[in-house]
Amino acid sequence: MKQFRLSSLTLLCLATALMLGGCATTQEVEKLRSEVQSATASANSANTKAEAAMKEATAARQAAERAEKAALEAKAAAEATDAKIDNMFKKSMQKG
């Protein structure tokens, strides 16, 4: 699919150059082809960087989810400890 779009883009650019300038010279066609190849390389590079950024974002999200889970577990443990201390205090007050 990508190859088809890139080929279509190349053909479109070449056809446009031919229509606008009449008969294009070989040098003009080669220059246009070079520009298209450069644009394609830039697009491919941007796509690669975007994919890497997506992977990093996914890893960061997963780390945040693990941290949130650990924080919730710590909160639950702290609340349970607080409840035990309250119970121990109440029992000690009843004995006195």
Overview of this structure, please?
With 96 residues, the protein is an all-alpha fold. The chain has one domain (2-95). The protein has two helices and no strands. The protein has helices at residues 2-21, 26-95. Helix 1 (2-21) packs antiparallel against helix 2. The protein is rod-shaped and about 105 Å long. The mean pLDDT is 86.
Shape: rod-shaped
Number of strands: 0
SS field, number of helical segments: 2
Sheet of most strands: none
Strand percent estimate: under 5%
> What number of domains?
1
Order of SSEs, N→C?
A: HH
Overall structural class, as computed from helix and strand content, comes to: mainly alpha
Share in helix = over 70%
Distance between the termini: 82 Å
Topology:
Blueprint: H1 2-21, H2 26-95
Helix pairs in contact: 1-2
Summary?
With 96 residues, the chain is mainly α. The protein is built from 2 helices and no strands. It is rod-shaped, with a radius of gyration of 33 Å.
Question: Which key phrases capture this entry?
Answer:
2 helices, mainly alpha
